Automatic annotation (TrEMBL):
Substrates-to-products reaction catalysed: L-proline + NAD(+) = (S)-1-pyrroline-5-carboxylate + NADH + 2 H(+); L-proline + NADP(+) = (S)-1-pyrroline-5-carboxylate + NADPH + 2 H(+)
Family stated for the protein in its record: Belongs to the pyrroline-5-carboxylate reductase family.
Record-given protein name: Pyrroline-5-carboxylate reductase
Keyword Amino-acid biosynthesis belongs to the record: yes
Organism: Leptospira perolatii
Listed InterPro entries: 6-PGluconate_DH-like_C_sf (IPR008927), NAD(P)-bd_dom_sf (IPR036291), P5C_Rdtase_cat_N (IPR028939), P5CR-like_CS (IPR053790), P5CR_dimer (IPR029036), Pyrroline-COOH_reductase (IPR000304)
Primary localization class, coarse: cytoplasm
Binding residues annotated for NADP(+), in chain numbering: 8-13, 62-65
Record localization: Cytoplasm
Pathway, per record: Amino-acid biosynthesis; L-proline biosynthesis; L-proline from L-glutamate 5-semialdehyde: step 1/1
Top-level taxonomy: Bacteria, Pseudomonadati, Spirochaetota, Spirochaetia, Leptospirales
Residue intervals of the Pyrroline-5-carboxylate reductase catalytic N-terminal domain: 5-86
Length: 258
C-alpha cells in the first residue's frame, strides 16, 4: 500500500488496527490526545494535528460517535475516510467532510482485537479495495449492498460476541450443575466452542456448501446423549431465542441511528 494512513483514536479498536498495519510495515500514524500513558508507550502518536493531517492520505476514524462530525469539520483538505464509529451513517460522514472526500462506513466487532474479526462495510466503491487491504488480515470483510444492512451486521456479528460469551458461560454453569468445578467447566466450554468452530471451518474449506446441521448430525446418535440435550435446548426455544436476539439488536441499531 503506497498511501499513508492516519488513525484518529487509538484505543482498543484503533490501536488494534494501528498495530496490524505497523506489523505489515505500512506507513501509519496515530493521533489521540486522550490515550492513557500506558497505551501511548505502544503507539507512536503524533502530537501536532496539522502535521498529522499532512502525513495522512487515508484517515481511519476510531473515535466516539459524538466526536466524528467535529473532527471531520476540522479537516483542511479532502481525504479518503474510513469510519468505524458506531451509528454514524455515510450521509453524515459526507456532509461533515471537506468537498471531494470519499467515505466508507465500517461495522467491526470485538474479535478484531485478536485478528479474528468480522465486519460489514458500505460507501464509496472506489475505496472497497482499500478496505480489504487494510482490514482483511485481521477480519472477515463483508461488502453489503445497501447501508441499512449494516444494522443487520451490527445485530449479528457486532453484538454476536456477547451472545457467544453468554453461551460459553451457560455451558460452564451446566457443567457445574452436574458436578464439575467452574474452572474445569469453563476450560471445557472454551475448547468445545473453539474446536467446533475450527472443525466446521475446515469442513467449509473442503466444501463451501457445508451446512452446520450436517456436522451437528455427525455428533448426534439415535437415542443418545446429544439428541437428549438438543431436545432440552429446543424445549427452551434456543433457536428462536438466538434469532430473536439478532433481530432485536438489529432493530435497536436502527433506533440509535435515527
Amino acid at each position: 500500500m503506497s498511501e499513508s494512513i492516519g488513525i484518529i483514536g487509538c484505543g482498543n479498536m484503533g490501536g488494534a488496527i494501528y498495530n496490524s498495519l505497523q506489523e505489515r510495515k505500512e506507513k501509519v500514524f496515530g493521533y489521540d490526545p486522550y490515550l492513557s500513558q500506558s497505551k501511548q508507550a505502544k503507539i507512536d502518536l503524533e502530537s501536532d494535528w496539522n502535521e498529522f493531517l499532512k502525513k495522512s492520505e487515508i484517515l481511519i476514524l476510531a473515535v466516539k460517535p459524538n466526536e466524528v462530525s467535529k473532527i471531520l469539520k476540522s479537516l483542511n483538505s479532502s481525504k479518503k475516510i474510513l469510519s468505524v464509529a458506531a451509528g454514524i451513517d455515510t450521509h453524515t460522514l459526507r456532509n461533515a467532510s471537506p468537498p471531494g472526500s470519499q467515505v466508507v462506513r465500517i461495522m467491526p466487532n470485538l474479535p478484531l482485537l485478536v485478528g479474528a474479526g468480522a465486519l460489514g462495510y458500505f460507501g464509496e466503491k472506489e475505496l472497497y479495495e482499500l478496505v480489504q487491504k487494510i482490514f482483511s488480515p485481521i477480519s472477515y470483510c463483508l461488502e453489503v449492498s445497501k447501508e441499512e444492512l449494516l444494522d443487520a451486521v451490527t445485530g449479528l456479528s457486532g453484538s454476536g460476541p456477547a451472545y457467544v460469551l453468554k453461551f460459553i458461560q451457560s455451558l460452564a454453569e451446566g457443567g457445574v450443575s452436574v458436578g464439575l468445578t467452574y474452572a474445569q467447566s469453563l476450560e471445557l466450554s472454551l475448547q468445545t466452542v473453539l474446536g467446533t468452530t475450527k472443525l466446521f471451518l475446515r469442513e467449509r474449506e473442503a466444501n463451501p456448501d457445508s451446512h452446520p446441521e450436517a456436522l451437528k448430525n455427525r455428533v448426534t446418535s439415535p437415542g443418545g446423549t446429544t439428541i437428549a440435550g438438543l431436545e432440552a435446548l429446543e424445549q427452551g426455544a434456543f433457536s428462536h431465542s438466538v434469532i430473536s436476539a439478532v433481530k432485536r439488536a438489529t432493530e435497536r441499531s436502527k433506533e440509535l441511528g435515527r
